TrEMBL record:
<protein>
    <submittedName>
        <fullName>(apollo) hypothetical protein</fullName>
    </submittedName>
</protein>
Length: 215
């Protein structure tokens, strides 16, 4: 888009006696400038920007009692990813221990997903060289050296979440769970884990359908 397009538009409107309001009813660029760069790339802002703006306006207070803690799974992995053990089995154990150490009886770790069509499609196309197939064959397999970089690979994240959901069902984690109950989302599925008689009880949770109110 030209730098002085509004000035040129005004000059043409005056010289040609064209209604400027009518001129502005047409697009000024191939794509909406508020959403896209001239190159066609989507405008992006750090996710934390909105959060910082909102939290600056409030004085938050911690609740007296917390019954459930909900965690953004991939954001959480970015936070702890630089200090995780070397094998996937130990990674799964370490994450579960951290979740069970939360000061709440129930923890939900939610791993989001993007359905096509999505605003993430263009970004994923730009990362086609990064999103390469990845397989986790078992708990003894070593994780990538640069774990945080691997989290940019959609296929790696998908394989890791599936591995966590499967490996946490191992009865050796019964003592880790104790009296806690954990939930994890895997695609469209959700699994819960609790301990009973020194065994891990894994349950696939059914989706909750909210009743529609009649009009």
């Amino acid at each position: 888009m030209e730098r002085d397009i509004f000035g040129r538009l005004l000059a043409i409107a005056i010289n040609q006696k064209v209604d400027i309001g009518y001129c502005l009813s047409f697009p000024l660029a191939p794509l909406p400038p508020a959403l896209f760069h001239c190159s066609g790339d989507i405008m992006k802002t750090d996710k934390s920007t909105l959060s910082k703006q909102l939290t600056a306006k409030i004085a938050p207070a911690n609740p007296g009692q917390v019954d459930i803690e909900i965690i953004d799974g991939f954001y959480y992995l970015y936070q702890i990813g630089s200090n995780l053990p070397q094998t996937f089995g130990k990674v799964a154990e370490s994450i579960l221990i951290k979740l069970c150490s939360k000061n709440t009886p129930e923890v939900h770790i939610i791993f989001d997903r993007y359905l096509t069509p999505s605003i993430k499609d263009s970004e994923r196309q730009n990362r086609e060289g990064i999103d390469i197939p990845y397989t986790i064959n078992g708990p003894l397999q070593k994780r990538p050296n640069d774990f945080l970089k691997s989290l940019k690979n959609f296929r790696f994240k998908e394989a890791l979440v599936k591995f966590l959901a499967n490996h946490w069902a191992d009865d050796s984690f019964a003592t880790v769970l104790g009296n806690k109950k954990n939930y994890i989302t895997v695609g469209e599925q959700c699994f819960s884990y609790c301990s009973a008689a020194n065994l891990v009880v894994q349950t696939e949770e059914l989706p909750v359908e909210l009743p529609c109110s009649g009009g």
